[in-house]
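Design job #97: recover the sequence.
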């Protein structure tokens, strides 16, 4: 394992005031978002969308790394430039989603297990050769009646640790993403307890697999009540509860933490991150930033709507959200932005 390479990459991804952009939706998920807006669900339309993102002027000022999907890393822009080259030229580190999706877990109705370990060693070598320097794997945990089960937490955290080990062996920084979903009627405390349990399990599994914590990034959910919970809470409460949960369960050696947005609006996700960076919050041992997909992309995608003529205003909207998140990481975001 090239420890110094991993540490350097992880530190560069987390440096300064930047964050990550997840643009690694599978074809199915991307198509679903396109369908809602009436955008054609074709490889060309997906390419056009990703080209719009990576050619956004000055995106590299606020984004340190972009996570791609397998289709995208192999695609070229309309002018023939490989998309991965355009990303590197923009001063952004390319990353790749390597899990093959969360599938129904046998014997555990309502729960999922993420697949993709078979053949991963070979795929990572190919991605590294193409220029990817970090990777992402997402495990999904659902809160509901009697779930998550211990079996689901154990299977998903074990898979995440095996993935992380294979990444580090290949010189690729793993982003370890255990997502406790927002869907459901659970309250803030239930989200806290489940996330805490998942994180304890993750770091136990990562320890057993010999993961270099300084060469990995954690991508967790924020601690929030479920979308259908009648008791919603303030921005401040989400921030303090999230920070408390992370301080209790994430070792200080981890290179950084970058949140998923999980279906929050762009404004909400920025406000929550911003509240975690106020002066009266506890001192944090790791950089704390964003790795949003929907919270950065969604307004821009709506403006674009698949039309060439809308590319420029869509890019402006995309950059605006990325800038808001950068400001949130500095604790200077406000909604008027
Ligand atoms: P969201 O920010 O839309 O939750 O996506 C982040 C991500 O990468 C999910 O795997």
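Job complete. Output follows.
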């Amino acid at each position: 394992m090239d420890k110094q390479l991993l540490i350097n990459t992880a530190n560069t991804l987390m440096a300064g005031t930047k964050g990550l952009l997840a643009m690694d939706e599978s074809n199915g998920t991307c198509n679903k978002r396109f369908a809602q807006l009436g955008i054609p669900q074709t490889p060309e339309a997906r390419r056009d969308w990703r080209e719009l993102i990576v050619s956004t002027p000055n995106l590299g000022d606020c984004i340190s790394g972009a996570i791609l999907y397998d289709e995208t890393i192999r695609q070229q822009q309309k002018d023939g430039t490989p998309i991965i080259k355009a990303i590197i030229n923009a001063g952004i580190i390319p990353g790749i989603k390597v899990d093959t999706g969360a599938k129904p877990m046998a014997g555990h109705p309502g729960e999922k297990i993420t697949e993709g370990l078979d053949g991963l060693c070979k795929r990572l070598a190919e991605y590294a050769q193409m220029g990817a320097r970090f990777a992402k794997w997402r495990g999904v945990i659902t809160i509901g009646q009697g779930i998550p089960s211990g079996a689901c937490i154990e299977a998903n955290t074990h898979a995440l640790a095996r993935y992380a080990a294979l990444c580090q062996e290949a010189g690729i920084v793993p982003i370890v993403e255990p997502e406790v979903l927002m869907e459901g009627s659970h309250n803030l405390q239930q989200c806290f307890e489940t996330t805490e349990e998942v994180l304890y399990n993750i770091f136990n599994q990562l320890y057993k697999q010999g993961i270099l914590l300084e060469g990995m990034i954690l991508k967790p959910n924020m601690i929030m009540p479920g979308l259908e919970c009648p008791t919603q809470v303030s921005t401040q409460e989400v921030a303090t509860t999230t920070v408390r949960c992370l301080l209790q369960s994430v070792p200080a050696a981890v290179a950084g933490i970058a949140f998923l947005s999980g279906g929050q609006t762009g404004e909400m996700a920025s406000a929550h991150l911003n509240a975690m960076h106020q002066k009266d919050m506890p001192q944090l041992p790791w950089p704390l930033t964003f790795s949003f997909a929907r919270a950065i992309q969604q307004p821009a995608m709506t403006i674009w709507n698949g039309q060439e003529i809308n590319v420029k205003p869509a890019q402006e909207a995309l950059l605006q959200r990325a800038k808001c998140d950068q400001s949130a990481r500095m604790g200077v975001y406000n909604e008027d932005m």
